[in-house]
Each structure stands twice: as C-alpha cells, then as structure tokens.
UniProtKB/TrEMBL annotation:
<comment type="similarity">
    <text>Belongs to the anti-sigma-factor antagonist family.</text>
</comment>
<dbReference type="Pfam" id="PF01740">
    <property type="entry name" value="STAS"/>
</dbReference>
<dbReference type="InterPro" id="IPR002645">
    <property type="entry name" value="STAS_dom"/>
</dbReference>
<feature type="domain" description="STAS">
    <location>
        <begin position="32"/>
        <end position="133"/>
    </location>
</feature>
<dbReference type="InterPro" id="IPR003658">
    <property type="entry name" value="Anti-sigma_ant"/>
</dbReference>
<dbReference type="InterPro" id="IPR036513">
    <property type="entry name" value="STAS_dom_sf"/>
</dbReference>
<feature type="region of interest" description="Disordered">
    <location>
        <begin position="1"/>
        <end position="20"/>
    </location>
</feature>
<protein>
    <recommendedName>
        <fullName>Anti-sigma factor antagonist</fullName>
    </recommendedName>
</protein>
C-alpha cells in the first residue's frame, strides 16, 4: 500500500462504491402504528443508504413506534451503527418510540462492545421489542 492509494472494498470495488445487492430491506406494519424494518444481508458503507431510507420512511409513517429487526443482518459495520443511532435520534425528535431487536451473535457482540444496545433499546427478540412498544415500559 502506498500513500494516497485507496484499497478496493471487501468485494473488489472501490471503497464506498454503492453495493445495494448486499442488502435487502423489508418493511411492514406489525401492529397498528408500529412498523418493523427488517434488513437482510450486510450493512456497511456501500449498502447503508437502503437501511437509512427505510428507517426514515418508517419513522414518518409509524404513529407509535419502529422496530429494526436485526435477525437477518450478517454484517454491521460502523456506518450501519451510525444509521441506527441516527434513526434513534430522529425517532426521539418525532416522538416515535424506537427499538432494535434480535440479531446473530456477531451483531449482538458489536452492540455489546460499543455499548449501543441500551442506547438503541435493544431486545433479544422482535416480540419483546413489540411488547415494549405497546406497553410503553421504557422510552
């Protein structure tokens, strides 16, 4: 590596090149006023805009709350964490409750190491996050 040279991304593309095929995001209303955003795949600098757009849209349509189900995420880089923190902040500003839930061990480990689990009101399961939103047990 020489100074001033960018290394290819993990898949041989230039760093930051959009790679939306790495991520698919599904959105549905789980309960009245509660939207679940479910990303599937890798959330990194090249795919994070898909998740960002989906969470922003969910926050504008949800009356009560948004849950991001991390169960289908196979990788979450720092950009993915920034997207989740941004969504939490936007939810606070809009008066909408926000939760993250589930996730494979690698994603849960990242939330533990960064201490973002409590910030994102992370639950072990989507059902727990939905129940929390409906009962209003924590903000």
């Amino acid at each position: 590596m020489s100074n001033g040279t960018e290394l290819p991304g993990r898949h041989g593309d230039p760093p930051g090149a959009p790679r939306p095929e790495l991520l698919r995001v599904e959105v549905h209303e789980s309960r009245p006023g509660v939207v679940v955003v479910s990303p599937f795949g890798e959330v990194d600098v090249s795919s994070a805009d898909l998740l960002r757009d989906a969470t922003h849209e969910a926050l504008t349509t949800a009356g009560r709350g948004v849950v991001v189900d991390l169960g289908g995420v196979t990788f979450c880089g720092s950009t993915g964490l920034v997207v989740l923190i941004d969504a939490q902040q936007r939810a606070d500003e809009a008066g909408v409750r926000f939760r993250t839930a589930a996730g494979p061990p690698i994603v849960r480990r990242v939330l533990d190491i960064t201490r973002l689990g409590p910030v994102l009101h992370h639950s072990d399961t989507v059902a727990e996050a939905l129940d929390d939103l409906v009962t209003g047990s924590s903000v």
